[in-house]
Design goal:
Elements: E1 6-15, E2 21-26, E3 39-40, E4 43-45, H1 52-64, E5 69-82, E6 98-108, E7 125-131, H2 136-139, H3 145-154
Parallel strand pairs: 1-6
Antiparallel strand pairs: 1-4, 2-3, 2-7, 5-6
Enzyme class: hydrolase
Pfam families: NUDIX
Organism: Plastoroseomonas hellenica
């Protein structure tokens, strides 16, 4: 496992005017309404040589169908997580041990109707909602929970 690299990745905490964040339900877990891992933050891989600030805006548009956002804060560190042993060689095309992530807080500048999960022919998410930042760690799968706890703590000053 340690021979495999981390996949470069960006993640977005999209805050609305009320200080709530957008969470989206994974399309491959439609019955996981309250299950950890069913809901998550938008995130995605970076292209070779891509600037993380550009990548996070691209990922928002690809995953939730809107670019109506502006970066308000960048997490000072790259955060990493390892996949559980049973997912090594399966998840992330089997090429990575986990992900190395740069997280951003963004202000949503649009209206709820600007969020369009139906634009991608193979959407990652099938539902979305606004949530309190403090709810975030309980939504995470176990192997991502530490990162979500860190994000909830480090971006708490932006929340409702």
């Amino acid at each position: 496992m340690t021979d495999l690299p981390y996949r470069p990745n960006v993640g977005a905490l999209l805050f609305n005017a009320e200080g709530l964040i957008l969470v989206a339900r994974r399309a491959d877990m439609p019955n996981a309404e309250g299950a950890p891992g069913g809901w998550q933050l938008p995130q995605g891989g970076m292209d070779e040589g891509e600037d993380p600030r550009i990548a996070v805006l691209r990922e928002l548009e690809e995953e939730i169908g809107t670019s109506r956002a502006e970066i308000i804060e960048e997490h000072p560190e790259w955060l990493t997580y390892d996949l559980p042993q049973e997912l090594i060689g399966v998840a992330l095309r089997g090429q990575y041990r986990g992900q190395r992530q740069k997280w951003f807080a963004l202000r949503f500048t649009g209206q709820d109707g600007d969020i369009r999960l139906d634009l991608d022919p193979h959407p990652e998410f099938d539902a979305w909602r606004w949530a309190r930042l403090a709810e975030l760690p309980a939504m995470a799968v176990a192997f991502k929970r530490e990162i979500y706890e860190r994000l909830a703590r480090d971006f708490a000053h932006l929340a409702a």
